[in-house]
Amino acid sequence: MLTFAILSAQCRAVSQATFERRYPHTWLVRELGPEDQPPPSFKTVFAGTSPGASSHTSVSRHRISSAMSGVSRQCELLPVIKRPESPWQDRILVGRALNSDIVLRDPSVSKVHAHISVQGASTAMIHARKSTNGTFLNDRPLEPFSDGVPLRSGDILRFGNIVCEFLLSADLYRLVTR
């Protein structure tokens, strides 16, 4: 798992150009909490019914990146990239299943919850799938199987109870090195 503390230590020795060459993709950043221990079963449950789950109303008012400071921040950094063995080369799958490109091991996340399509280094679209607990962009529910919605750096995504912030590589570098 790549954390803010690990990346911070790596970034202090490289320039932004070197960082962007090393990590030419976008990122999902999520805060880690005590409830991030995997439950004994990964059967999908309705949001808010899993132990320790909370209601996530108005989550877009809280930017994860705005609270990131110092190495004490417990954040997981998830690269928005394809796994080479993935059979769907046109999309980056987000879900609870271990064969997803971005794995979110939480019972509120469906096996295949959403997918991200990338057109170029800084253009990405989020596509909701038919998930039990929905996919939200800046507190707005996304319609399953729509054409997708463009993502901008700083957008807040919610997959079930998991809240992530979408960041461009350059923006992540600036956060890590401030």
TrEMBL record:
Residues 92-142 form the FHA domain. It comes from the Bacteria. It holds the Pfam family FHA. InterPro entries: Cell_Proc_Reg/RNA_Proc (IPR050923), FHA_dom (IPR000253), SMAD_FHA_dom_sf (IPR008984). SUPFAM superfamilies: SMAD/FHA domain (SSF49879). This is Phosphopeptide-binding protein. It comes from Sorangium cellulosum. The lineage of its organism: Bacteria, Pseudomonadati, Myxococcota, Polyangia, Polyangiales.
